[in-house]
Amino acid sequence: MDLVTRNDTALEWFVGAGLWLLGALVRGFGRLLWWLMCRPLWAFGVLLLVVPTVTGTWLQVLYVVNGVAAFLVAWELTLPDSYSRFFAQPLRRWRRVRRVYRRNWETAMVMSGMAKPGVEGTIVPQLLGVDCGRWADYVEVGMLMGQSLTDYERACPALATSFGALDCRVRADRPGILWLDLRHGDPLAKTIPARPIPDEADLGSVPVGVRDDGKPWVLQLLGTHLFIAGVTGSGKGSILWSLLRGIAPAIQDGTVRVWALDPKGGMELAFGRPMFTRFAAESSEAMVRLLEDAVAVMDDRAQRMAGITRLHVPTADEPMILLVVDELASLTAYEPDRKLRDRATAALSALLTKGRAVAVVVVAAAQDPRKEVVTFRSLFPTKVALRLDTPSQVDMVLGEGMHAMGAACDRIPTSLPGVGYVTVDDLREPQRVRACWVTDEQIVSASRSHSAPVEQLIGVCELAIEVRDEAA
């Protein structure tokens, strides 16, 4: 009886152990299958090993693999754009989405403070989608209840570190949805050569450089004013000369007439003197007089066009007057003659408030953006901030909170002249950009090949100034 009992006990143990081992094998095989399903490249590699071994078709599989490899190489060599668009970029996007974002999303949200405790555990913002570009990834995020854009802006340094990005910026989309722009490459790291002068100028979209997403940076001239701020050597001249080269055909045919003011005695703008219809650099009185002449043209044009159009389209008979002021503070803050200073401030204020509609446009540059130096900087719809000294100066130029949104102009190295951030009226977020580098030889060449018409003042411009002088 004892022998039978011992045999039954041993049998039960062996059966139990066998069942446990079978269950463990099934669970392990299931986990292996799930792991392979989550990693298609590994699954493909396993199939390449298993199928030929079982079927004895190693030679056929080798032919197929070599054929696919040859096809991909030929595709890349003959049609590189198509290869990148339909194969390389989707593959790179798939790998980055899985390895960088989906795998680390919950941890990154918790560690950066974006996750919140809930009734059933920790709640994390929803990862809605990822768009991978060459230089940056754009991550669509569904915010949690009670969160705001400011919360994510404060977490940008932590988010950039979590996902291995150079920096992170936040863009609003729609209520409850935002985008994280995570930059992992920098197309602005190298000097950008000057673009060729176009055959025809587009005053609504003048190419001046490159954005940090690799696309061209264009600036609008018609219907706006432009303010450029940056310390010495930050690249203000690169923007000015890229603009002037971009509209050179319009300068040559008389559609745009450039009136330039150079308080530095001509050291900055004299290279392009033939492109300027009027040029003042010899004295503050001459520069203020030029500003007041522009006001006279603006007032006359506004009176004649009242009720006809809300935005004048320049022509050779009614050209755009583009006022280029190299160092604005020299006239509005540092000028020792108070009367001249007040006249300059009054003229610039009038031009900035009324000039856009009648195509009298101001492009001004300054080194010191403080309010006591440039009192009317808020009147410029388009603002560019290059390298600056402090975070507060960034907000002075671009608007309150722009430094917190990623416009780190105070951290731009001296080795990157022309790099800065731009804001326009209809966009909340600053855009990182770099202006093209224009050499002195290219400036001189452009001024010779696209010089302004010989006549200094024509038609209604001359008449308006004469009427102003008679009234005075």
Describe what you observe in this structure.
By secondary structure, the chain is α/β, with parallel strands linked by helices. It contains 15 helices and 16 strands. It has helices spanning 2-37, 40-55, 58-78, 80-102, 105-111, 149-154, 156-162, 236-246, 248-252, 284-305, 329-332, 338-354, 391-398, 440-449, 459-471; strands at 116-118, 121-123, 126-132, 136-142, 167-174, 177-183, 206-211, 216-219, 226-229, 256-261, 276-280, 320-325, 360-366, 382-385, 419-423, 431-435. The strands form three sheets. The protein has a ten-stranded mixed beta sheet with strand order 8-7-16-15-14-9-13-12-10-11. Strands 3-4-6-5 form a four-stranded antiparallel beta sheet. A two-stranded antiparallel ribbon has the order 1-2. Strand 1 and strand 2 form a beta hairpin. Helix 3 packs across helix 4, helix 10 (284-305) packs parallel to helix 12 and helix 10 crosses helix 15. The longest helix is centred in the first third of the chain and has 36 residues, at 2-37. It is elongated. The N and C termini lie far apart (133 Å).
